[in-house]
Amino acid sequence: MAEPIRVVVTGAAGQIAYSLLYSIAKGDVFGKDQPIILILLDIPPMLPVLDGVVMELQDCALPLLREVIPTDKVEVGFKDIDAAILVGSMPRKEGMERKDLLKANVAIFKTQGAALDKYAKKTVKVLVVGNPANTNCLIASKSAPSIPKENFSCLTRLDHNRACSQVAMRCSVSSDNVKNVIIWGNHSSTQYPDVHHAKVNIQGSEVAAYDAVKDDAWFRGEFISTVQQRGAAVIKARKLSSAMSAAKAICDHMRDIWFGTKEGEFISMGVHAAGNPYGVPEDLIYSFPVQIKNKTWKIVDGLPINDFSQAKMDATAAELVEERDTAVDFLSQYHSPVCFVYLY
What we know:
Elements: E1 5-10, H1 15-26, E2 36-41, H2 47-59, E3 65-71, H3 74-77, E4 83-86, H4 98-119, E5 125-128, H5 133-142, E6 152-154, H6 157-171, E7 178-179, E8 182-184, E9 192-194, E10 199-202, E11 205-208, H7 209-213, H8 216-220, H9 222-238, H10 244-259, E12 267-272, E13 285-293, E14 296-299, H11 307-333
Helix pairs in contact: 1-10, 4-5, 4-11, 5-11, 6-9
């Protein structure tokens, strides 16, 4: 059997991690023959909770799980890791300005980026989940100059899955019969779920999504707003943020990085925009359609973009530019490592 890989999850005492850790430890993400050392990183007040999570993981008696390490120290959490799933972040509280949220998260992700730079393997694959995910990912990457920028990505797979599901329900097919939807831009309410290149398999025949649904007004209106606002709708109904679906999307994202995407299919993830073929400003983490092979992603090139799509893509890029400029300004104010504190 292979040597164990080291995987860290931050915010490991939170509800997303609680839905996530079992799937990772069971082999659903990195493979059924890949032993794992799981490192659970959280803030000091959460260590007693982490002890309970450790006990539960032990009690699952999972053959691939070789060791579980709970810690509140970045030098332990990021030591020689192969994969980092950064779930923990400061959430937006009532009355909090977006710039205050950005400032708090710049402190967290500068610290974690610097720790990755110092302690992690240079081949580490880093997935940022904590919001604002795109900009947090950018800050972490900027703070880890010795790790290739291509190793950093942020989660828009949940939005991608939501879009697939909406189309599938509309066509009365299972979600695995829908492929090549795209989430462009920011993981926020400005994101653009695009189905102009999507296909739906109906009774063995691949049909363009617009032809399968036959309702252009729905695609340009309710469909987009449903996907954009889905997180808020879950919170309103459940009084808690998406956890089960977020954990599933994290698993999908990391599994695709590890094993690649299917031939002829692409998925959505937030990646560095440098060299992109769609005119998106380069110093951003922006969600694109990507294909993955040998743990390397490539933005899908050559997709025709109509005026409707271009306007939506530009709007979400503008929001990301504003976020980036605010965050980079805060970043320049930090000259020494800061403690990271987060809730979720």
